[in-house]
Amino acid sequence: MSVAPLTPPSGGWSPEEYDALPVDGYRRELVDGVLHVSPSPTGRHQRVALRLGAALDLTAPAEYVVTQAVEVKLAENLRYIPDLLAVTAEAFGDGSRPLYRPHQVALAIEIVSDSSRGMDRILKPSHYAAAGIPHYWRVELSPELNVHTYELGLSGEYVATGEHSKTLTVSAPWPITLDLAQIDR
Question: What pLDDT shows up at residue 36?
Answer without folding.
Answer: 67
